[in-house]
Amino acid sequence: MKHLLSIADLTPEEVRRVLDLAVQLKEEWKAGGNRPILANKTLGMIFQKPSLRTRVSFEMAMRHLGGHALYLSPDEIQLGKRESVADVARVLSRYVDGIMARVFKHSHLEELAAHSRVPVINGLSDFSHPCQAFGDMLTILEHKGRLRGVRLAYVGDGNNVAVSLMFASAKLGLHMALACPEGYEPPQKAVEIARAAAVDGATLEITHDPKAAVAGADVIYTDVWTSMGQEAEAELRRRVFPPYQVNAALVAQAKPDVIVMHCLPAHRGEEITDEVADGPHSVLFDQAENRMHAQKAILAILLGGL
């Protein structure tokens, strides 16, 4: 694993290796602290989009592992505007040991990786959000004790989070059902990649019926109806998506011990109700914490050579 741009680029063995190491590093942290396996290492963090979880979880992951993180705000770099993406990669990779970028265009990540001397990590792009999916799989593993055979229902927009969950589910043997409004399904190319990558009996179902998707589900997952960069579509989406709200009535269609997930930030009252987000099925904040532990594993492998 040279970079982490998409889970689609990884083998099932590489995906499992990240999760196994995440479990170990989380246990180690809870037992008193991590070893300084990234001592004297620095992660340069490029942000085109604002963030709470991505910035703090990466900064603390580096600190816990003995390294440092350097935050580069949207105005400081203006990736592809003030300076070409290729030149940013060429310069920054002479200063730091790894680059994490949270961008709009996935092509910018690919260009960074093509011209960087150091590993590049996708902190979010319009195509995929692999670090989120790794944290999510760690959370499902903790709460369900397994991944293979788990039924994961995703309800809402077929966005970058949905795509990364599709790839992770395919490579870890989950049964994933996505319920999206017509016209808001995941990209067909991503669906084809996920189905071709399926191992251990993994299946992928696309439907327009949220009740059908969550029937018998072990996990229900949702995300905002309107992501950053889609603000012009917000009003239309508020008219289209209400039948896909994760509320108590929908949760009741799943297994009694279903867990409910959301990558946050949540638009409470839209894609998820307060009753569900704060209710007994919610694992939203375990999920948020696990971003840090999963990213420790990614950093340890890419920057620490583990």
Write the layout of secondary structure elements.
Blueprint: H1 12-30, E1 42-47, H2 53-64, E2 68-72, H3 74-77, H4 85-92, E3 98-102, H5 106-115, E4 120-124, H6 130-144, E5 151-155, H7 160-172, E6 175-179, H8 188-197, E7 203-207, H9 210-214, E8 219-222, H10 234-240, H11 248-251, E9 259-262, H12 274-277, H13 284-302
Parallel strand pairs: 1-2, 1-3, 3-4, 5-6, 5-8, 6-7, 8-9
Write up this protein.
It is a single chain. The chain has 306 residues and is of the alpha/beta class. It folds into two domains: 7-129 and 291-302, Aspartate/ornithine carbamoyltransferase (Rossmann fold), CATH 3.40.50.1370; 132-287, Rossmann fold. Helices cover 42% and strands 14% of the residues. The strands form two sheets. The chain has a five-stranded parallel β-sheet. Helix 7 links the parallel strand 5 (151-155) and strand 6. It is globular.
Q: Class of the largest domain, according to the CATH hierarchy?
A: Alpha Beta
Average pLDDT number: 96
Largest sheet: 5 strands, parallel
Cα shape: globular
Helix proportion? 40-55%
Determine the number of helices (DSSP H or I, runs of at least 4 residues). Answer: 13
Which architecture name of the largest domain does CATH use? Answer: 3-Layer(aba) Sandwich
Instruction: Compute the number of structural domains.
Output: 2
Rg, rounded, reads: 19 Å
Q: Output the strand order for the largest sheet.
A: 7-6-5-8-9
Low confidence ranges: none
Find the structural class using helix and strand composition: alpha/beta
